[in-house]
Design a protein that fits this description.
The structure holds 2 protein chains of 2 kinds.
Chain A (H helix, E strand, L loop, with lengths): L6 E2 L3 H30 L5 H29 L1 E4 L3 E6 L3 E8 L3 E7 L2 H5 L2 E8 L3 E8 H14 L8
Chain B lengths: L4 E2 L3 H27 L3 H25 L1 E5 L2 E6 L5 E6 L3 E8 L1 H6 L1 E8 L8 E7 H11 L16 H6 L2 E3 L2 H10 L3 H23 L3 H36 L3 E4 L3 E6 L4 E7 L3 E8 L3 H4 L1 E8 L12 E8 L3 H8 L11 E2 L5 H22 L5 H20 L1 E5 L2 E7 L3 E7 L5 E7 H5 L2 E10 L2 E11 H11 L9
Antiparallel strand pairs in B: 1-2, 2-3, 3-4, 5-6, 5-11, 6-7, 8-9, 9-10, 10-11, 12-13, 12-18, 13-14, 15-16, 16-17, 17-18, 19-20, 20-21
Helix pairs in contact in B: 1-2, 6-8, 7-8, 11-12
The chains are: A alpha+beta, B alpha+beta.
Chain lengths: 160, 483
């Protein structure tokens, strides 16, 4: 039985996920309000649709902004070995992934506005057939890892 | 070294046909609009002009298209307004295939497709029409190693060659069986379904004995008869298509590649470099399995995108299950297998399989039971079938590791045995949800490259130890720091 990977992702990841959750909730609530407004003007559309939407978005808000980020962060781990990358994630379904360096085709870092605010960025590792992500690493760490992986992956590759 | 050469003039015919075919599709809506407004005279003029333009441009592009064989490369120049020159080095060429459709065969010509290792299929080259001799000459000149020098379209011309290179050919009888059983599975299902619906249409007759209803049901029966006839015709067509596609299917093993010729109307050659094979699979559909038959295929990296919507490349359309091992030993010893004992799923996994497949029909059955009680038996039958399938999945699924090979036996509906080499697996995942964790089960998800995309092999609810064992086998990090 193999142990968990050692490294954790940045603590600020939780904050970033929280903000994303807030934004999603705002959109969901806007939809709910729209449904209520329509129900006010259009006779045959009942109010309860809007009310259900509103309740659902508030539940979504609580779960996605306060519960999920913590659990998710706690589970997220990774470790970079000489020969392979080892990733663990998932709250209900725990997934452990092995990506051999030999199979890595390219490595990207990417950063959206929310991650940028916290100085984080996401590392994306592509093989010929699959893509893997390590989200929310510190900017420097991510770019170091990117260079490190591309260095390690720079081995003579036979056909794919 | 040779001088620049043009294609055979018949290439113009191909280019005209091709352009007309593509333009018809894009212009059809406009044409229909114009005819709708009774302006067909303009349509005729426009069509005439278009055809003239297409013919002129085909002639021009034929005139401007030249190819030239040099010592270890082929140089192609083309383009009317924009001149393009392309040089393909012999060493970069993966395969050269000759194929002939009906027009080619009338003129004694062949199409030459040159495929390179690049992922961008646009850099591959195609000579649309050259004479047969010329095609063979190009083929022999550019072949990276001259070993399979005497590849002929018809391998039978060289009996002494076949001894050196193992080869297999399909019999017409096997093809007819393949055609009548494999592709037409849906049709057979449809026939069974119709059988059911006929029974249903007979049952209500007892309750409604009015004359009008009788006439009405007569009509339905005639309709059903027609539908059955139509299905049988479809089925025969299916057989015909298989015959045309795979007629004379011959596979030959050369040192570094597999070579396939097939086709009745259009003779097709294809070359599969061994380097590109990502996995070998043996499929037994639920019709084939009881008959002890199977189909062998390979997954290859890249290949002609778009021209062939098939996910896999068929190595042999139909073969006895007992012959598969011999076939692989002869033609593809790299993937030979001989497994008596598969490591299968633990008993604890069965409920998961039952749940996954049967839960939806079960819910539908319950809903039907309370609403449309008379019809509840239909979802009930589906539920029972789903349970059966789940049981067979549970029975079938298994794996085995031998040296650098991983063997996976899987089933959606058809039984699929996959052989894949360690270095072809792109990544490996172990997935475990919290209930699985309690029961020490886990799922495995691994992927290979197939036509620029990934193909995932997912084995659910294996013993956790087994998944860990496979992960350890897969891991490149043999001396891990954290053990």
């Amino acid at each position: 039985m193999r142990n968990e990977p050692k490294e954790r992702i940045a603590l600020d990841a939780m904050k970033a996920w929280k903000i994303t959750a807030h934004l999603v909730t705002v959109i969901a609530i806007l939809f709910a309000i729209a449904a209520l407004v329509i129900a006010y003007y259009v006779e045959f559309i009942p109010y309860w649709i809007g009310i259900i939407l509103l309740v659902a978005s508030i539940i979504l808000w609580v779960v996605s902004a306060w519960i999920i980020p913590k659990l998710r962060w706690r589970r997220w781990r990774y470790e970079i070995f000489d020969q392979e990358i080892y990733i663990q994630h998932g709250i209900l379904i725990v997934t452990r992934t092995i990506v051999p360096m030999l199979r890595v085709q390219h490595v990207d870092t990417k950063q959206g506005p929310i991650l940028k605010k916290y100085g984080l960025s996401t590392l994306q590792i592509s093989t010929a057939a699959t893509t893997h992500e390590i989200p929310a690493l510190l900017e420097e760490e991510a770019s170091d890892l990117r260079d490190q992986i591309s260095e390690l992956a720079r081995v003579e590759q036979d056909d794919v | 070294m040779s001088n620049p050469k043009r294609l055979h003039p018949a290439a113009m015919i191909f280019s005209v046909i091709h352009s007309i075919k593509t333009s018809i599709f894009s212009l059809l809506p406009i044409v229909i609009l114009a005819i709708g407004e009774a302006k067909w005279i303009y349509v005729v003029i426009a069509a005439g002009a278009l055809v003239t333009i297409i013919i002129i441009s085909s002639i021009l592009s034929w005139l401007r298209y030249t190819y030239q064989l040099e010592e270890d490369q082929i140089r192609i120049e083309q383009g009317v307004l924009i001149r393009k020159k392309r040089t393909i080095s012999k060493h970069r060429i993966q395969s050269i295939d000759l194929s002939q459709n009906i027009i080619h065969r009338i003129f004694g010509l062949t199409k030459v497709q040159i495929e390179t290792a690049g992922n961008d299929h646009k850099i591959d080259a195609t000579l649309h029409a050259v004479t047969m001799d010329e095609g063979k000459m190009v083929h022999d000149q550019l072949k990276y190693n001259q070993v399979p020098k005497d590849i002929e379209v018809d391998t039978n011309e060289h009996p002494e060659d076949e001894k050196k290179h193992p080869s297999r050919k399909i019999t017409p009888k096997a093809l007819i069986i393949a055609g009548s059983t494999s592709g037409s599975f849906g049709v057979i299902l449809g026939l069974i379904g119709l059988g059911f619906s006929e029974i249903e249409s007979i049952i209500p007759d007892r309750y409604y004995n009015h004359a009008t209803d009788w006439v009405f049901s007569q009509a339905i029966q005639i309709l059903i008869l027609l539908a059955i006839v139509a299905l049988i015709i479809l089925w025969l067509l299916g057989i015909l298509v298989t015959l045309i596609q795979y007629w004379d299917f011959t596979i030959t093993r050369y040192e570094k590649e597999l070579f396939i010729t097939r086709g009745l109307l259009e003779k097709k050659q294809s070359t599969i470099p061994l380097k590109r094979i990502q996995a070998v699979g043996v499929v037994e559909t639920i019709i084939h399995q009881p008959l002890g038959l199977a189909k062998i295929y390979v997954d290859i990296a890249s290949g002609e995108m778009g021209s062939d919507s098939e996910m896999h490349t068929v190595l042999f359309p139909l073969i006895r299950k007992s012959e598969v091992q011999n076939f692989l030993r002869e033609l593809l010893p790299e993937y030979e297998y001989n497994i008596d004992q598969w490591i299968s799923l633990p008993k604890r996994a069965l409920p998961y399989y039952l749940f996954r497949l049967a839960i939806l029909p079960l819910i539908v059955t319950i809903v039907f039971y309370f609403t449309l009680t008379d019809w509840a038996y239909i979802p009930l039958i589906v539920t029972i079938l789903a349970c059966l399938l789940a049981y067979f999945q549970y029975k079938t699924i298994g794996y085995e590791i031998k040296g650098e090979h991983l063997f996976i036996r899987n089933r959606d509906l058809s039984k699929d045995t996959i052989i894949v080499k360690h270095r072809r697996l792109q990544a490996m995942k172990k997935k475990q949800h919290f209930i699985q964790k309690k029961q020490n089960l886990a799922s495995l998800d691994t992927a290979i490259l197939n036509k620029f995309l990934g193909r995932h092999f997912i084995v659910r609810d294996l013993e956790q130890e087994d998944v860990d064992k496979i992960s350890d086998w897969y891991s490149y990090q043999k001396n891990r720091s954290n053990i």
